[in-house]
Amino acid sequence: MDHEYDQELTGRVQRIRKKGTGDLSVDPYRDTITYLFGLLSHQTSITDQALIALSGFLTSYDPVQARYAGPEWRMCIQMTAEIVQQTGDVRIRTAKENQFH
After folding, report:
1. Position 101 confidence tier, pLDDT thresholds 50, 70, 90
2. At CA 68, angle to CA 90 and CA 26, rounded to 5?
3. Whole-angstrom distance, CA of residue 10 vs CA of residue 79
4. In Å, what is the CA distance from 49 to each residue of 6, 34, 56?
5. Which of 58, 66, 55 is nearest to 93 (CA)?
6. Would you list the DSSP string of 24-76?
7. CA distance linking residue 22 with residue 16, whole number of Å
8. Is the C-alpha dihedral spanning 12, 15, 16, 21 positive or negative?
9. Fewest CB atoms within 10 Å of the CB: 34, 54, 67, 96?
10. pLDDT band at residue 89, thresholds of 50, 70 and 90?
11. φ, ψ dihedrals at 61, nearest 5°
12. What is the value of pTM for the model shown?
């Protein structure tokens, strides 16, 4: 992995952790870290919309970037598991598929 890329992602995670919020208007693949923090800051209750947002993210994130936000990534997975467990809804669909249901 490129040293500059590593420093960029490490710095991004540190800045967003300090700021305490991300952004859901970015492309989750191109900016997984920012989107992940935004997703976590907006998901406060277990709803169908929360499952749609989480499942959409989980089908479109960049796994390399997700590694840099390990604790937040784990929270995302745990939140998804809790929603699935509480709702019994095991359908994981992409955001595009959810637009048509």
Report:
1. very low
2. 70
3. 24
4. 33, 19, 10
5. 55
6. TTS-TTTTHHHHHHHHHHH--S--HHHHHHHHHHHTT--HHHHHHTHHHHHHH
7. 7
8. negative
9. 96
10. low
11. -85, 165
12. 0.78
Tokens of 83: 């929603």
Residue 86: count of CB within 10 angstroms of its CB? 10
Nearest-angstrom CA–CA distance, 62 and 22: 16
CA atoms of 52 and 86, how far apart (whole Å): 15
31, two tokens: 């900016």
- Hey, what are 59's tokens? 């089908």
Place of tokens 């952004």: 23
Query: How many residues does this entry show for the chain?
Result: 101
3-state secondary structure of 91: coil
Q: Which residue, 61, 51, 66, is CA-closest to 30?
A: 61
Burial of 5 (0-12, 13-18, 19+ CB in 10 A): exposed
